[in-house]
Design brief:
Helix content is about 45%, strand content about 0%. With about 230 residues, the chain is an all-alpha fold. It is globular.
């Protein structure tokens, strides 16, 4: 998920790109709740606003949801987040409700089925990596008891709390995402470069990158146990 400073079609993670002016139907969103100050990337659609307000940046510790975002972030590589967000429920059906145990058992027939499914991104490498990542995911669960226990070690068990005032200040990678990417690759995961890992960290609340002026910043910080004095500038 990537942030695009001036684009209403902005994805929701950490890759900064400028793709033109933001345009959206003001009458559709000109309601009292939309007058709240939000991160600009989410203003392109109601779906973005809901995702921003209800999910993005909140700490996730459920292994099923962590696997879901691992699949979706890998699928997004090279695409806009809007494409993946629109296909999210199709992915849920196609990938067995994001059950890593079931996905790990997918074989050649399933790959063929997925390549013919117009509801998802029909890229063989991404499909096969999702299946391979499910198998690696299960191995991590066996080793650590839960993928959550493994994953959150990279941030010491607590989210990174940033105090960015402008989208241009939001990082696309960090030392933590570099370390995560390297370790995941060593364990056989694919589509887990540092940029993808950092976008994943933002999505599952391992990093709070709501801008300080956004009405969600403080609430997400509290959800992650963040204190203003301990936040990174």
């Amino acid at each position: 998920m990537e942030i695009t400073p001036a684009d209403g079609d902005a994805p929701c993670g950490g890759r900064l790109r400028t793709r033109g002016r933001m345009s959206w139907n003001r009458s559709r969103y000109d309601m009292p709740m939309t007058r709240l100050v939000r991160c600009p990337w989410c203003l392109g659609s109601e779906a973005y606003i809901r995702y921003h307000d209800e999910e993005w940046g909140l700490p996730v510790h459920d292994d099923g949801r962590l696997f879901e975002f691992l699949v979706l972030e890998g699928a997004q590589a090279g695409l806009s987040w809007s494409t993946i967000l629109d296909k999210r429920e199709h992915y849920r059906r196609a990938f067995a409700g994001f059950d890593p145990g079931r996905v790990a058992r997918f074989g050649a027939r399933d790959v063929k089925r997925l390549l013919e499914d117009a509801g998802i991104v029909r890229n063989r490498l991404k499909i096969e990596s999702a299946i391979g990542n499910a198998r690696a995911f299960l191995e991590v669960q066996d080793e650590f008891g839960a993928f959550d226990a493994y994953l959150w070690r990279f941030v010491g068990g607590r989210p990174l709390q940033h105090r960015c005032r402008d989208l241009r200040q939001v990082p696309s990678t960090t030392e933590e995402s570099d370390a995560m990417s390297k370790d995941l690759k060593n364990r056989g995961f694919r589509f887990v470069g540092s940029t993808i890992c950092y976008a994943f960290m933002q999505a599952v609340g391992m990093a709070n990158d709501h801008l300080v002026g956004c009405f969600r910043h403080a609430a997400v910080a509290r959800a992650g146990g963040g204190e203003a004095s301990g936040m990174r500038a």
